[in-house]
Write a structure and sequence with these properties.
7 helices; 5 strands; binds flavin mononucleotide; Flavodoxin family protein
Length: about 210
């Protein structure tokens, strides 16, 4: 049974604190038996959604850029890890624009009633959220959580778990918090093990 995970990175610093947290989760996913592809979203060249509304009546998106292959790649994936720092109380701009381009999936699911993701796939697809914030304030992750709830619904991969750490301006180095890194590893390992079990149970035999 193959298991394909897409790990989305929302920070522009590949090996910063967010990157270190993501790498731990990727190790957990691989140790559980999944293939993982990491995508550093800020390094992609793509347009935000321009509201052409092509996808309201047609399959796919009329914009052709670095985002385009992900419409197919997201259909083929079994799970997702999404890592991001809080920026201006929400999802960093490049990653938010990436998420917005999945309006194609939204239109297919809710307007054209021809969902991209099959009923079977919905039984095993899952998402893990990793996020860090600089500030030590209440509600630091509220914006991210609202967006993630909507995104997970649109891509049909419900939120399995989250590992959140605020106060990074004081903590400075996430490696001084081994319990947070361990939580990223453990939650990814558990999620990916559950994906493999569920996929085994629900995947039609002829696929
Ligand atoms: C443009 C920008 C906006 C930010 N806005 C917030 C914010 O609203 N709340 C917060 O807690 N931290 C905020 N931060 C701090 C980052 O979340 C924090 O520095 C994080 O540790 C960065 O992780 P990284 O270095 O791995 O990318 C902001 C940072 C930047 C660069």
């Amino acid at each position: 049974m193959t298991c394909q995970i897409i790990a989305l990175m929302g920070s522009p610093i590949p090996d910063g604190n967010c990157g270190k947290l993501l790498e731990k989760a990727i190790s957990g996913a691989k140790d559980a038996g999944c293939n993982v592809v990491r995508v550093d979203v800020p390094s992609l060249k793509f347009s935000p959604c321009m509201e052409h509304f092509y996808c309201e009546k047609n399959e796919g998106c009329m914009i052709n850029d670095d985002f385009s292959p992900f419409l197919k790649r997201f259909k083929g994936a079994d799970g997702f890890i999404v890592a991001m720092p809080v920026m201006t109380m929400g999802v960093p701009g490049a990653l938010k624009s990436f998420m917005d381009r999945f309006q194609v999936y939204f239109m297919a699911k809710y307007v054209r009633h021809m969902p991209v993701i099959t009923k079977e796939q919905k039984k095993w697809r899952k998402t893990l959220l990793l996020s860090i914030g600089g500030m030590n304030i209440p509600n630091d992750f509220d914006g991210i959580k609202l967006t993630m709830d909507a995104f997970c619904d649109i891509i049909d991969a419900p939120l399995y778990g989250e590992v959140l750490q605020n106060d990074m301006d004081n903590i400075k180095d996430i490696t001084t918090r081994p319990e947070v890194l361990q939580a990223a590893y453990d939650t990814a390992f558990e999620m990916c093990s559950a994906i493999i079990t569920d996929k085994d149970k629900y995947q039609p035999l002829n696929e």
